[in-house]
């Protein structure tokens, strides 16, 4: 029986994920249909709906799994917050999975970094703002929105251009784009090298 989390269920999920990535090579995400995904995966619609509500739900679940995988690979003890090494580790992962992120980043409309919102707010944004004398929650929210939107759109452009800029160069550029009150002067590159 094909119950949730048994091997057949997991195999079918993998087939749908591979079908999504394969279809993304020939059509934009916005034109994908459940029917096209099912045909590509050689599975039926009933099987699709046993796994997902719709294509957006599928992308969200894929992203959640990738987010967990990324966090498992990320060693926070060796990386200072907003340092070139912390961004570079993240960017290596994005580049290795750019087919998926090309789709996922085009679905962003509100609060681009939905996964990890609470930790980002509590462990990063609030402490950085408070450390710099910003205690008004509304003002902190603007910093969060600015960071999320800017970071996501920069990342989206980098992926859309096939990650032409090296991870190291892009990491340095991202650091330069941080609000000045968050930048650690010792981590700032003097300039972003040409690529």
TrEMBL record:
<dbReference type="Pfam" id="PF14278">
    <property type="entry name" value="TetR_C_8"/>
</dbReference>
<feature type="domain" description="Transcriptional regulator TetR C-terminal Firmicutes type">
    <location>
        <begin position="87"/>
        <end position="174"/>
    </location>
</feature>
<protein>
    <submittedName>
        <fullName>TetR family transcriptional regulator C-terminal domain-containing protein</fullName>
    </submittedName>
</protein>
<dbReference type="InterPro" id="IPR039532">
    <property type="entry name" value="TetR_C_Firmicutes"/>
</dbReference>
<dbReference type="InterPro" id="IPR050624">
    <property type="entry name" value="HTH-type_Tx_Regulator"/>
</dbReference>
<dbReference type="InterPro" id="IPR009057">
    <property type="entry name" value="Homeodomain-like_sf"/>
</dbReference>
């Amino acid at each position: 029986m094909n119950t949730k989390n048994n091997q057949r269920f997991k195999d079918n999920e993998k087939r749908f994920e591979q079908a999504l990535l394969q279809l993304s090579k020939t059509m934009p995400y916005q034109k994908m249909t459940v029917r096209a995904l099912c045909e590509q995966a050689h599975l039926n619609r009933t099987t699709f709906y046993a796994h997902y509500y719709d294509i957006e739900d599928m992308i969200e679940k894929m992203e959640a799994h990738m987010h967990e995988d990324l966090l498992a690979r990320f060693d926070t003890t060796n990386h200072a917050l907003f340092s070139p090494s912390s961004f570079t580790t993240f960017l290596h992962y994005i580049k290795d999975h750019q087919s998926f992120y090309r789709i996922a980043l085009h679905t962003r409309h509100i609060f681009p970094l939905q996964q990890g919102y609470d930790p980002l707010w509590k462990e990063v944004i609030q402490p950085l703002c408070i450390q710099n004398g910003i205690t008004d929650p509304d003002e902190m929210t603007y910093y969060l929105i600015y960071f999320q939107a800017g970071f996501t759109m920069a990342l989206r452009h980098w992926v859309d251009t096939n990650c032409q800029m090296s991870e190291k160069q892009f990491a340095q550029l991202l650091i330069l784009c941080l609000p000045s009150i968050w930048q650690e002067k010792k981590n700032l590159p003097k300039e972003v090298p040409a690529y």
